[in-house]
Amino acid sequence: MATSSSFILCSLLLCLVSSQTLATTGSQPKALVIPVTKDSSKLQYTTQIKQRTPLVPIKLTIDVGGNFQWVDCGSGYVSSSYRPVSCDSQTCTASGSGACTAECYTPPAPGCYNNTCSHMTNNPFSNSGGMGEMASDTTVIQSTDGRTVGKAVTVPGAVFTCGATWLLGGLSAGALGMAGLGRSEVSLPVQFASALKFPKKICHVLELFFKLQRCHILWRRALCVPP
């Protein structure tokens, strides 16, 4: 059974004060937040972002140390803004990938393009993994002033890796992948920090009460550490 409390009080702060905004917002954001929900039956924490064109809500299991976000591309992934990441691109180099898919043997579709950067997608809850195509797509999360949820912030080409549908086994019901919040150059918070010209700081401001299944923000800049 999944439980959640207030969107702001039960949330994970990704980035702090910005000096300049490059992504699409109505005004300059001060910080970004994602909602966090506890799935007690799976002992997992999940979040929801919006991705693709047109936008689709995407539920993801949180991986605090994960290097990147991966999403199931094998079950009806449709988006006009999907772009595979080529093997010789700067993004592929920055991601630390040492693999390239030279040729895909099925018709071109999300998760199957030629000459694409590849990564090993991993599901620690089922102890399974597999190679997946790196791609970019429009991604949206919310801004905040620390008290209320602000306007949506859009990064047109946020990078992620395509995972196979069978990798979803063991994740929270309805989850379509995992959100990596680690220190790599292609993790979700680092990408948004780069796009928005934030200092590369991630605030782990989530205090968890496992028995009460509640959490709240600890709003302290001293808790922010560079990724």
Describe the structure.
Helices cover 7% and strands 42% of the residues. With 227 residues, the protein is mainly β. Mean pLDDT is 79; it is low at 4-22 and 205-227.
**Uncertain regions spanning at least 5 consecutive residues:** 4-22, 205-227
Task: Give the helix level as a range of percent.
Answer: under 10%
Structure annotation, total helices? 2
Overall geometry: globular
**Largest sheet, described in full?**
6 strands, mixed, barrel
Give short descriptive properties of this protein.
227 residues, six-stranded mixed barrel, mainly beta, two-stranded antiparallel sheet, 2 helices
List the helices and strands and how they pair.
Layout: E1 2-3, E2 11-15, E3 31-35, E4 37-39, E5 44-51, E6 56-63, E7 70-72, E8 83-84, H1 90-95, E9 99-101, E10 116-123, E11 128-144, E12 149-163, E13 177-180, H2 188-196, E14 202-203, E15 206-209, E16 214-217, E17 224-225
Parallel strand pairs: 6-13, 7-12
Antiparallel strand pairs: 1-4, 2-3, 3-11, 4-5, 5-6, 5-11, 7-13, 8-11, 9-10, 10-11, 11-12, 14-17, 15-16
